[in-house]
Amino acid sequence: MGFSDTFPFLHPVSRQRNHKKVISNTAGDCEPLLEGLTLMPEDPALSLPEPPPPAAGAPAGGQPVLDALPDPFLLLRPERGVAGTITDFICTYANGEACRLHGHQPERIVGARLRDLHPSHCAGDLFEHGLRAFEAGQTVAVPAPGRPGEAPGAPRALRLFPAGGWLCCLWSGASEPADLRRRLSELERRHHLLAGHASDLVIEVDADHRILWVSESVQKLLGWSPPALVGRPAMAFVHSDDRCRALRTGLGPRDRGRFEGELRIRRADDGWCSMGGSVRPAPEGSGGAWVLCLRDIQDRVTIRAELDHSQHHDTVTGLAVRHVALGRIREALDRQAGTGSMLAVLSIGVDGLTPVNDALTHAGGDQLIAFLAGRIVRAIGEPDRVGRGTGDEFIVLLSDLASAAEAAHRAERILTACRAPITIGGQPIDPTVSIGIATSAAGALPDELLRDASLAMRQAKARGRNCFALLDDALATEAHTRLLFAAEIQRGLVMEEFAAWFMPIVCFETGEVTGYEALARWVRPDGIEVGPAEFLPCAERRGLIVRIDRLVLRQALVTLSRLPDELTMAVNVSAATLAQPDHPQLVAEALEAAGVSPERLHLEVTETALVTVTERIRQQIQQLAGRGIRWYVDDFGTGYSSISHLRDLPIAGLKLDRSFTSAMRAKDTKTLRLSQALVGVAEGLELDTVAEGVETIEEARLLTSQGWLHGQGWFYGKAAPLEP
């Protein structure tokens, strides 16, 4: 083993080339950047048996040792001509003693040629001795070249010996090549220890982007042997999609700056590894052009890609999520503009998903959705045209259609594909879907198309499911009207256009008013009165009903405070208000603010709302009842609650729905018997009773004869503002 094999960190020196080509900085065009570079693996340079030896400076970590030498010491690298022969040696390092010997500062010596440092000797045999020592791997002792006027006793002998890719010049004195070799060997041991445990990859390249040196970590990170890479073009190992960026921002002319980012680097097994790091200009005089410091970030890139995928794809079906589907619709609309072709958006809703979730849990429902997603994709033939909407909805984009009939034909194909039986959790299921179709019009927006398709899908469900429906203009107009109406309600609440009106409640036996029911009314600025049947359903859908309930409660209690103490006030409580955690507190605050006794307040909750009663709501009802507030079940006989609620909740009274009263007016025998039975239940539980919708004296007498205690309706007076 030669001395150069012992110290591989003393990198071999490359040939100096005349770098004539100019690397273009034209943004967006990498042709000039890549011109002249042979990058592909089939490049013969990638299989050179003896790649050109690379250049390097002083050994890493070796400067303290060399600086401490008591004798002059130079490191020189060979300079080669076009034919590859050594034509001179260039100084890459000079210790302090060598600088004093030559009478120059280090910056004047480093980079200088041997022929320039000692022209007279190089004209003779000094260069030949150095060449023989370098090529033969031997130590050659020659008379020491001095300088004019040197002091007596100056060193008179010079030893020339190779070390890796360098030629070492050591003037005779206290230091010996063997001692220097020992010190460098210790540095080499430490270098290997550091390189073996390094997690980063360090690469030095020349101005032609050929690898001069690579750290040993390349074996562990990429599977390459370091010697196999030396002399090869670095860009051959960079992914083709990343080369332009690296050349444009980093590996260009030395004055271009630095590059920091990510690159995909080829592994020995022909795979790719994502690596992050930086490219820096190599130190002047080192012989290299660039130093690349790279770190394996494959795990980070993989996680980032998975997160990005999850943000754009549904986890159950793998389909594009809603915002991605909208983006594809937008792109299709842009492409369609001016072509005369038609575009359609299909909203596909899964029929009967709730029963599947109830029977097989949501995991079973997800399996059903995944099954149907696959069937829809196969029916369409293009996965990129299918997306997942919200809940049980799929979104399908159809473009380049000749007519709406073609969209309907594709919808029929989807219906057929989806209705084939499947088995989930051992249970046979006959799935069906309902499809809404919306076709593009001039100036249509993606959101509008999807909205229209969803409206049509709901229309298909209303027709009986397992069918498709094209958007009905009247349906779209109705939806738009509902939206405007909701905005009007919100504006009316802000402008205080809503108020509590009051309908009297009368004792059947005495005919006297015993209290009032507070009802919400909306009078718009133009004087038009909007009935509760019009605005209450919309307010419930838009989440505005709680604000209306609280407004009516406050106004009702203020009005009650001005009425005689024997009168009561009934106030309706919607299911949404009942579910508010702060409802008991707000009721208590309103009572205190109005100065009204809790016993005078009756809170009415519909029978249907009782179905949603949770343990927390049950406790709130009991809390208010404990204060003296009386609870009534409104519209009794029309909802879905169990009669057990009358037993388990602190209910004080029942209100017979007006539909019973109107049926009694028509002499309906079954209604008469039901009414009689209900009053019997109330009497057995000692509950108060109120019959709604009383319009004639005959109805009042009939209800009285059955045992109903109170009544309200137009016969006793319509709802109106109440002036005490």
TrEMBL record:
Q: Provide the residue span(s) of the region labelled Disordered.
A: 42-62
EAL domain residues are: 482-724
> Which ranges carry the GGDEF domain?
341-473
Q: Which InterPro entries match?
A: Biofilm_reg_signaling, EAL_dom, EAL_sf, GGDEF_dom, Nucleotide_cyclase, PAS, PAS-like_dom_sf, PAS_fold
Span of domain PAS: 186-243
Do you know which PANTHER family this protein is assigned to?
Answer: BIOFILM ARCHITECTURE MAINTENANCE PROTEIN MBAA (PTHR44757:SF2), DIGUANYLATE CYCLASE DGCP (PTHR44757)
Per its UniProt record, what NCBIfam families does this chain match? GGDEF, sensory_box
Listed name of the protein: PAS domain S-box/diguanylate cyclase (GGDEF) domain-containing protein
